[in-house]
UniProtKB/TrEMBL annotation, chain A:
<feature type="repeat" description="WD">
    <location>
        <begin position="243"/>
        <end position="284"/>
    </location>
</feature>
<feature type="repeat" description="WD">
    <location>
        <begin position="113"/>
        <end position="147"/>
    </location>
</feature>
<keyword id="KW-0677">Repeat</keyword>
<feature type="repeat" description="WD">
    <location>
        <begin position="20"/>
        <end position="61"/>
    </location>
</feature>
<protein>
    <recommendedName>
        <fullName>Anaphase-promoting complex subunit 4 WD40 domain-containing protein</fullName>
    </recommendedName>
</protein>
<dbReference type="InterPro" id="IPR037867">
    <property type="entry name" value="Swd2/WDR82"/>
</dbReference>
<keyword id="KW-0853">WD repeat</keyword>
<dbReference type="InterPro" id="IPR015943">
    <property type="entry name" value="WD40/YVTN_repeat-like_dom_sf"/>
</dbReference>
<dbReference type="InterPro" id="IPR001680">
    <property type="entry name" value="WD40_rpt"/>
</dbReference>
TrEMBL record, chain B:
<feature type="region of interest" description="Disordered">
    <location>
        <begin position="776"/>
        <end position="941"/>
    </location>
</feature>
<dbReference type="InterPro" id="IPR011666">
    <property type="entry name" value="DUF1604"/>
</dbReference>
<feature type="compositionally biased region" description="Basic residues">
    <location>
        <begin position="903"/>
        <end position="914"/>
    </location>
</feature>
<dbReference type="InterPro" id="IPR000061">
    <property type="entry name" value="Surp"/>
</dbReference>
<feature type="region of interest" description="Disordered">
    <location>
        <begin position="78"/>
        <end position="152"/>
    </location>
</feature>
<feature type="compositionally biased region" description="Basic residues">
    <location>
        <begin position="884"/>
        <end position="895"/>
    </location>
</feature>
<feature type="region of interest" description="Disordered">
    <location>
        <begin position="380"/>
        <end position="405"/>
    </location>
</feature>
<protein>
    <recommendedName>
        <fullName>SURP motif domain-containing protein</fullName>
    </recommendedName>
</protein>
<feature type="compositionally biased region" description="Basic and acidic residues">
    <location>
        <begin position="129"/>
        <end position="143"/>
    </location>
</feature>
Length: 335, 941
C-alpha cells in the first residue's frame, strides 16, 4: 500500500499501531532519522533506545544503551543512522560536557561538545551539513560542527531559546521569550538575523519551533500551551491553537511532512490534529498513555509517535497493520 | 656524513611497526625539511629510515638514485588501501599480486590470463543488471522526484555486435556489401598488373583495352559497373548522392518533370568540367579515345597544360580497391549523365525495354465549386439595415415643436437613436412609458418632428458611410434638402434661428461621444455648471477641483486616473469626510437635474448612457442614503493600487539571491502596520488580541484604519521633542522626517542606509533609552495583535512608508531589546575581543554594572553594549567626527554611519564614564583604534 497524499480521512484514521511500555520513566525526547526508518528516544531512566519503525514489531527495538553518567535529555540523529547527538543532564557544572556525539553502533562517545553551562532544551541538526545547533537554559544558542568539538558560534539571548533549521538548511530560526523569531542565514550567521518576526499576543517562553517541510510555515509552541502556525516568510500568524495546560510537562507539536496538518498533544491527555490550510480541527484522539510530551511525525512515513511514559506508534488504521506509506511523495512538492 | 647524512628519500610507503615509528619519525621530519630538494636527483643518496645508505639496486641507479629512475614521487607506489587506523589495525590483509603491479604490468598479466570480454561477460552483465534491478527496486520502495528507469540505460550506446566486429576484422568495411569480392578483385589485380605493363607506352592499346573492359562491364552487369553495384547496394544513399541542393529533405523538384532533372544534371556536370579535368578526360576517353588519362587525385595547375607527364602512368592503380575501370568512370553525376546519354539513344535504360503503355498519369483535382448564391462581400446585420429602412419613406419635413426644450430633447434623442440603432428607441420607449417628456416616441406631440429628425440623422450617418464605401446613394438623393446636404458635406448650415444653431452645434458636439463619452459628459457638465454656477465648493478652489475630479471619477467608470493620488495629502479621515461632502453635493446636483425636468435636453441621452435610465429614479435614492453606506460603496470601488513589491528576506535566502532591498528600509506596509499596531492600538484591541484564542485566524478589520491613522499624527510630538533636543545635526533630521508622515526627498539616501535589522535595533534601542532617560513613560508591554496587521498593510496610503522602518518607536522596544544581543560571534572572535576589551565584554564585564541600581537598567545597558560592540570604535570616534564639518557633503554611507554613531554616541556617554576610570590604558588603546578606523574610513571614502 502506498499513499500519495495525506487527507483528513487518513489523518482521522490514525490509530495506535504499537506500544512500547518498558521505559523506566518518562520519555524526554524522540527523534527520527531524516532518511532512514529509525527512531531514537531518550527517557528518564537514562537510556537511549533505537527503534526501527518500518520493520516488524518484534524487531522494532533495535538497541538500548544506558548513560548513567551524563543522562539523556534531548536527542537527535545526525546524518549517519547510528550516530546521535545527545544532551546531558548530569554533571554539567563539573564537566561541561553538555552535548555528546554518540555512536550507537559501538556504543561510544565520539566527541564531547563543551560550552553550555546549563541544560540543553533545544537541539537541531542541519539537514545539509554537519553543523547543528543547541539552545540551552543558560540563555545561549551555540552552533557546532560535528567534526570539531569547539563551538562555532554563540548567541546570547534572553530566556529560553528554541532553534530550528529549515529543510533546506539555508536558514535557521531562533525563537525566544517574548515571541520574537529571528531568522539567520546559516552560511553567514555572524551577520546577524536577516529577518525578525514578532509573534505578538503571547509573551510566554517559546518551547519549540519547527519549520514545515515546504518551508512555508513555522510552528511555535509556547510554554503556556499555545501553538501558533506562522507564515515563514512574513511571520504572520496563520492560525493559533490553545491547549489544555499540562503540569510540569512541555508539549510538543509537529507538522505532517506535507505541512498541511499540525498535531499536538494536550494537557488533558488527548491528541489533536488540525488542518492548517483551512484551520479546523481534523481529529482528536483519546490517548491512553497520559499527556504526550513528545510527538513527532515520521519524516517519510504516514506515522507518528507519541510518547509519555510509554511510546506509541500511530499509523493509519484501515485494516492492514503497519502501513509504511510514503509521504515522501508529499515531500517532493515544490518548495 | 654531516648534513648530507640526513638527506634521505622514501621509496614507497613502508609498513611500519609501531615501536620503530617514534625513533624514525624524528629523522623523517628532519629529512623532509632538509636540503633534499636542493640536490639534483642524481646526487641524492638513498638512505633508509635509519639514515643508512641504502643500495638502491644497481640497475636502477645505485646509491644515488633518489627519485631518479623510480616512480618519481615521494609516495611511490602505495599498497592498495593502506589503512592506518589505530583501532582497525591493518591486520592480516589479503594482498594479491595485483596490488603491487602497475597498470601496464596488469595489462600484461591480463594478456596472459583468459577472461571474457565485456561482450560475452554474461556474469558481469547480469551482475550489472542485477544491481540495476536492485536500484530500481529500491527506488520503487522509496520513490524519488524523478520516477522511471535509470537514465544511463537509455542513453547508453548500443555496442557493436560481434558479427560486425568479426566482419570488420576480416576486412569488410561499412557501406560495402557482404560479398566475396576477393576472388574477382584478385583476378582483376592480376589483370591490372598486366595492363600496367602495357599502359606505360601504349596509349592506344590501353584505351582500347579500357574500352573493351568497359563494354564488358556494361554488358555483363547492366547499367552500372560491377563494383559500383556492390557499393550502391549497401552504401547509404546520402553517401552516394550527397545532398547539394537547398531543397527540403525528400523534396524532389523534378518529380513530375524528369526532363528538367536531366537538364540540371548536364548543367551541373558542365560546371564541374570547368573545375576538373577529370570529367573532361572522361569525355575524351569516351568520345576521343586517343587522349591521355589523368592520374586520379592528381590535378594539374590552372596554367599548366595537360601533357605527357600528367597522363596517368598508373592508370587504374587501385587506391580504393576498385577495378581499373573506375578510373575511366566519370564522376558520379556525369556517370549518370552518360547513362542518360545512352538511354536517350535507345530511349530506354540499357537492360530495360520501353513500356508500350504508361500507367503514369498525373491526378488533378478541380478547385471546389463556389455556390451560386455566394457573394464575395460580407453583409452586416443590425443597425445598418434598420438605418436603410426609413430611407424608403421619407417623412415630411415638419417644423420643430414650439417647446424649445422638447425640440432639444428630440434632436438629441434622434441623434442618439440614429447612432445606437432602433433598439435603443424601443428600449427608451418602454422605459419612459409614463414620462410625459417622451411622448414623442409614442406618437404624441413632436412625433413627426422626431421622425423627421431621426430620418435626417440616419441620412447623415448612412450618407457618411455610403460616402466611405462609395456606394450609390439611395434614391432619396433628389429629395435631399440643402440642410442635409450641408450637414453631409460637413458645412455649417445657415442660421435660420438661434435654436437651429443650438441644435446643430449640440448635435455636432455630441457627434463623437461614443468614443469619448465621459469626456463629453464631464465637459458639458462642467460647462453647464459653469453656466448655472453650480459650484458647491466655491469658497475652496482646490476642493472644487477635487470635487470635479470626483464627479468625473464617479461617472466615468473604468480605470481610475492615477492623479487621484493627489488626495493622499489629506489624511484618510479628512478624505472620507470630503468624500461624504462630495457625494452629498453630487446627489444634490443630480436631484436638481432630475427635477428641473431636464432643461438641458442634450444631456439626457448621454445621461442614459452613463447611468442607465434607472439612474434618475433608483440612483438618487441610493445616493440619498447616509454617509456610512457611501463610505462602504466607495470602499468597494475597484481601485488600482501601486506598491513596490519586495520579496520576503527568507525568500531571497531560499533562492540564494542577494536581497535587492538589502540595506534599504524595511517593507513599508508591513513595518508600518507593525509599528502602528504596537504603538497606537487602543487597549481594547490589545486585550482582544492578547489572549491566544483557540484557532485565531486573521481577521481583517478595516474599520480600524482611520482610527490608527489619526493617532499616527498624534505621535509626532514625542519625536519632535527628541528632534528638538538633538536637532543640531541635519542628518538626524533626515532620519526623523519620515516620522512626520511625509515622503521626503531623502528617501533615496535612506534606501541605502544600513541593514534594516541593524537600523531597527539601533533605532529602537535608542528611542527606548532616550525615553527612559528623559523620564518618558515607555509602555512596557508590546503585544502584537494579529488582527489588524494585514488590512493595514493593504490600506495604508503610501505616504508614510518609512516611518517605522527607520525607527520603531517606544513600544516596540521590549521584544526587540530582548533579542538585542543577537549577534552570533564566533568563538575565536570572542576570545580576541575578550583580550582586547576585557572591561567591556559581557562575560567578564558584569561587575562593571554592579553600580547600576536596577537590574532592568543593567540588562538594557548590557544588551546595548553587546549590540554595539561592533560599532564601539565608531561610536568612540563619533564625537570628534562631529566636530569636523557636519554639513559638508559626505557620502551617503558616511551619513548613515554618522547618524548611527550619533545615536549610539548618546549611549557612549553612559558608557564612557565607566570605561574611562576603569581602564585608562584601554581608553588610550581605544584612541589609537579610533584613529586607525578613521584613517580607514577616509581611505574608503
Amino acid at each position: 500500500m502506498s499513499l500519495t497524499e495525506l487527507d483528513d480521512g487518513l489523518v482521522r484514521s490514525m490509530a495506535i499501531g504499537a506500544v512500547f511500555s518498558d521505559f523506566g520513566g518518562k520519555i524526554r525526547s524522540v527523534g527520527f532519522h531524516r532518511t532512514d526508518d529509525l527512531l531514537v528516544t531518550s527517557s528518564e531512566d537514562d537510556s537511549l533506545r533505537l527503534f526501527d519503525i518500518a520493520n516488524a514489531k518484534s524487531r522494532r527495538q533495535v538497541k538500548v544503551t544506558y548513560h548513567k553518567k551524563h543522562g539523556t535529555d534531548r536527542v537527535c540523529f545526525t546524518h549517519h543512522p547510528s550516530s546521535l547527538i545527545c544532551s546531558s543532564l548530569y554533571n554539567l557544572e563539573s564537566t561541561g560536557e553538555s552535548l555528546r556525539y554518540l555512536s550507537m553502533y559501538d556504543n561510544r562517545i565520539l566527541r564531547y561538545f563543551k560550552g553550555h553551562k546549563d541544560r540543553v532544551v533545544s537541539l537541531c541538526m542541519s539537514p545539509i551539513n554537519d553543523s547543528f545547533m543547541s539552545g540551552s537554559l543558560d540563555r545561549s544558542v551555540r552552533l557546532w560542527d560535528l567534526r570539531v568539538n569547539a563551538c562555532q558560534g554563540i548567541l546570547h539571548l534572553r530566556g529560553r531559546p528554541a532553534v530550528a533549521y529549515d529543510q533546506q538548511g539555508l536558514v535557521f530560526a531562533i525563537a525566544m521569550e517574548g515571541g520574537a523569531v529571528k531568522l539567520f542565514d546559516s552560511r553567514c550567521y555572524d551577520k546577524g538575523p536577516f529577518d525578525t518576526f514578532l509573534v505578538g499576543g503571547d509573551t510566554a517562553e517559546v518551547n519549540d519551533i519547527k519549520f514545515s517541510n515546504d518551508g512555508k510555515s513555522m510552528l511555535l509552541t509556547t510554554t503556556n500551551n499555545n501553538i501558533y502556525v506562522l507564515d515563514a516568510y512574513h511571520g504572520e500568524k496563520k492560525c493559533g491553537f490553545s491547549l489544555e495546560p499540562s503540569q510540569g510537562t512541555s508539549l510538543e507539536a509537529t507538522f505532517t511532512p506535507d505541512g498541511k496538518y499540525v498535531l499536538s498533544g494536550s494537557g488533558d491527555g488527548t491528541l489533536h490534529a488540525w488542518n492548517i490550510e483551512n484551520p479546523s480541527e481534523v481529529a482528536r484522539w483519546e490517548n491512553n498513555i497520559g499527556v504526550a510530551s513528545c510527538l513527532k511525525w515520521a519524516p517519510r512515513r504516514a506515522m507518528f509517535v507519541a510518547a509519555s511514559t510509554v511510546l506509541t506508534f500511530w499509523i493509519p488504521n484501515d485494516g492492514e497493520a503497519p502501513a509504511p506509506a510514503d509521504p515522501s511523495a508529499d515531500q517532493q512538492r515544490p518548495q | 656524513m654531516g648534513l648530507d647524512e640526513d638527506d634521505f628519500v622514501f621509496h614507497g610507503t613502508p609498513i611500519e611497526r609501531e615501536d620503530e615509528i617514534a625513533s624514525r619519525k624524528k629523522k623523517a621530519v628532519a629529512g623532509a625539511s632538509g636540503t633534499l630538494k636542493t640536490l639534483p636527483a642524481w646526487k641524492q643518496e638513498v638512505t633508509d629510515e635509519e639514515g643508512r645508505r641504502r643500495f638502491h639496486g644497481a640497475f636502477t641507479g645505485g646509491y644515488s638514485a633518489g627519485y631518479y629512475n623510480t616512480v618519481g614521487s615521494k609516495e611511490g607506489w602505495a599498497p592498495q588501501s593502506f589503512t592506518s587506523s589505530r583501532k582497525n589495525r591493518a591486520g592480516a590483509r589479503q594482498q594479491s599480486i595485483s596490488d603491487f603491479l602497475d597498470e601496464d604490468e596488469k595489462a600484461e598479466m591480463e594478456g596472459q590470463s583468459l577472461s571474457a570480454s565485456s561482450q560475452f561477460d554474461t556474469f558481469g552483465f547480469t551482475a550489472a543488471e542485477h544491481s540495476r534491478k536492485q536500484a530500481e527496486k529500491e527506488q520503487h520502495e522509496r520513490p524519488s522526484a524523478i520516477p522511471g528507469p535509470v537514465h544511463d540505460e537509455l542513453i547508453a550506446p548500443a555496442p557493436e555486435s560481434i558479427g560486425v566486429k568479426l566482419l570488420l576484422k576480416m576486412g569488410w568495411r561499412r557501406g560495402h556489401s557482404i560479398k566475396d569480392v576477393r576472388a574477382s578483385s584478385d583476378a582483376r589485380r592480376e589483370a591490372r598488373k598486366a595492363f600496367l605493363a602495357f599502359s606505360a607506352d601504349e596509349n592506344t592499346k590501353e584505351s582500347s583495352d579500357s574500352l573493351v573492359l568497359e563494354t564488358e562491364a556494361e554488358t555483363s552487369l547492366g547499367p552500372q559497373f560491377s563494383e559500383d553495384i556492390k557499393f550502391s547496394e549497401t552504401t547509404p544513399v546520402y553517401v552516394l548522392n550527397p545532398k547539394l541542393d537547398l531543397h527540403g529533405l525528400g523534396y524532389d523538384p523534378f518529380k513530375h518533370a524528369p526532363e528538367f532533372r536531366e537538364n540540371k544534371r548536364s548543367r551541373l556536370s558542365a560546371s564541374k568540367e570547368a573545375g576538373y579535368r577529370k570529367p573532361l578526360s572522361m569525355k575524351e576517353s569516351l568520345f576521343g579515345p586517343k587522349s591521355g588519362k589523368m592520374a586520379p587525385g592528381f590535378g594539374i595547375g590552372a596554367l599548366e597544360e595537360l601533357d605527357v607527364e600528367d597522363e596517368d602512368v598508373y592508370a587504374g592503380y587501385d587506391f580504393d580497391q576498385t577495378y581499373v575501370i573506375e578510373d575511366e568512370q566519370p564522376a558520379r553525376p556525369s556517370n549518370d549523365n552518360r547513362l542518360r546519354l545512352t538511354s536517350k539513344e535507345h530511349n530506354v535504360l540499357p537492360g530495360f525495354g520501353a513500356a508500350s503503355n504508361s500507367d503514369y498519369s498525373v491526378e488533378r483535382f478541380d478547385p471546389p465549386k463556389i455556390p451560386k448564391d455566394f457573394v464575395a462581400r460580407h453583409k452586416f446585420s443590425g443597425p445598418r439595415e434598420t438605418e436603410t429602412k426609413p430611407t424608403a419613406s421619407t417623412p415630411p419635413d415638419v417644423p420643430p415643436p414650439e417647446d424649445k426644450n422638447l425640440k432639444l430633447l428630440i434632436d438629441g434623442f434622434a441623434t442618439f437613436v440614429s447612432r445606437c440603432g432602433k433598439l435603443y428607441e424601443d428600449l427608451s420607449r418602454e422605459k419612459n412609458e409614463s414620462n410625459q417628456l417622451f411622448d414623442f416616441l409614442r406618437g404624441g406631440s413632436g412625433h413627426d418632428y422626431y421622425a423627421r429628425r431621426l430620418w435626417e440623422e440616419q441620412q447623415k450617418r448612412s450618407g457618411q458611410s455610403n460616402l466611405q464605401l462609395d456606394v450609390k446613394v439611395p434614391p432619396s438623393v433628389q429629395k435631399m434638402t440643402a440642410e442635409t446636404r450641408g450637414s453631409l458635406l460637413g458645412e455649417r448650415p445657415l442660421q435660420k434661428s438661434l435654436k437651429e444653431t443650438e441644435t446643430s452645434s449640440s448635435s455636432g458636439g455630441s457627434f463623437q461621444f461614443p468614443t469619448n463619452l465621459s469626456d463629453t459628459f464631464t465637459k458639458s457638465a462642467s460647462s453647464q455648471e459653469a453656466a448655472d454656477a453650480i459650484k458647491p465648493f466655491k469658497e475652496d478652489l482646490a476642493k472644487q477641483e477635487r470635487f470635479e475630479q470626483f464627479l468625473k471619477e464617479k461617472y466615468k467608470g473604468g480605470l481610475r486616473s492615477s492623479d487621484s493620488n493627489r488626495f493622499n495629502i489629506v489624511s484618510e479621515s479628512a478624505r472620507a469626510q470630503e468624500r461624504l461632502d462630495f457625494e452629498a453635493a453630487a446627489e444634490a446636483i443630480e436631484k436638481g437635474k432630475a427635477y428641473k425636468e431636464v432643461r438641458r435636453a442634450t444631456e439626457r441621452p448621454i445621461d442614459f448612457l452613463a447611468g442607465g435610465l434607472q439612474f434618475t429614479s433608483g440612483g438618487t435614492e441610493q445616493i440619498k442614503d447616509t454617509g456610512v453606506v457611501d463610505m462602504k460603496t466607495s470602499k468597494t470601488y475597484p481601485k488600482r493600487e501601486e506598491f513596490q513589491w519586495r520579496p520576503a528576506p527568507l525568500l531571497c535566502k531560499r533562492f540564494d539571491l542577494p536581497d535587492p532591498f538589502m540595506g534599504k528600509p524595511a517593507a513599508a506596509p508591513r513595518a508600518r502596520n507593525k509599528m502602528d499596531s504596537l504603538l497606537f492600538l487602543p487597549d481594547t484591541v490589545k486585550a482582544a488580541s492578547g489572549s491566544g484564542a483557540r484557532q485565531v485566524s486573521d481577521l481583517q478589520e478595516p474599520e480600524k484604519e482611520p482610527e490608527v491613522e489619526v493617532e499616527v499624527e498624534n505621535v509626532e510630538r514625542p519625536v519632535d521633542l527628541y528632534k528638538a533636543i538633538f536637532s543640531d545635526d541635519s542628518e538626524d533630521d533626515e532620519e526623523q522626517q519620515p516620522m512626520n508622515g511625509k515622503i521626503q526627498d531623502g528617501q533615496e539616501k535612506k534606501n541605502e542606509a544600513a541593514a534594516t535589522t541593524l537600523n531597527r535595533l539601533i533605532a529602537g534601542d535608542f528611542l527606548e533609552s532616550l525615553g527612559k532617560e528623559l523620564g518618558f513613560e515607555v509602555p512596557s508591554d508590546a503585544p502584537y495583535p494579529e488582527g489588524t496587521k494585514p488590512m493595514e498593510a493593504e490600506n495604508k496610503p503610501k505616504g508614510k512608508p518609512d516611518a517605522s522602518s527607520e525607527r520603531r518607536p517606544g513600544l516596540k522596544e521590549k521584544p526587540e531589546e530582548k533579542t538585542s544581543s543577537l549577534k552570533l560571534v564566533s568563538e575565536e572572535e570572542k576570545s580576541t575581543q575578550k583580550r582586547e576589551k576585557s572591561p567591556r565584554n559581557w562575560s567578564g564585564g558584569n561587575d562593571l554594572y554592579s553600580s547600576e541600581s536596577s537590574g532592568d537598567e543593567r540588562r538594557r545597558k548590557r544588551s546595548k553594549k553587546d549590540r554595539h560592540r561592533n560599532y564601539d570604535s565608531e561610536s568612540d570616534s563619533s564625537s570628534d567626527y562631529h566636530k569636523r564639518d557636519k554639513h559638508s557633503s559626505r557620502s551617503r554611507r558616511k551619513q548613515r554611519e554618522s547618524s548611527r554613531e550619533k545615536r549610539s554616541g548618546h549611549k557612549k556617554h553612559s558608557k564612557h564614564y565607566k570605561t574611562k576610570d576603569s581602564s585608562s590604558s584601554r581608553y588610550s588603546g581605544d584612541e589609537e583604534r579610533k584613529e586607525s578606523k578613521r584613517e580607514k574610513r577616509r581611505r574608503r571614502d
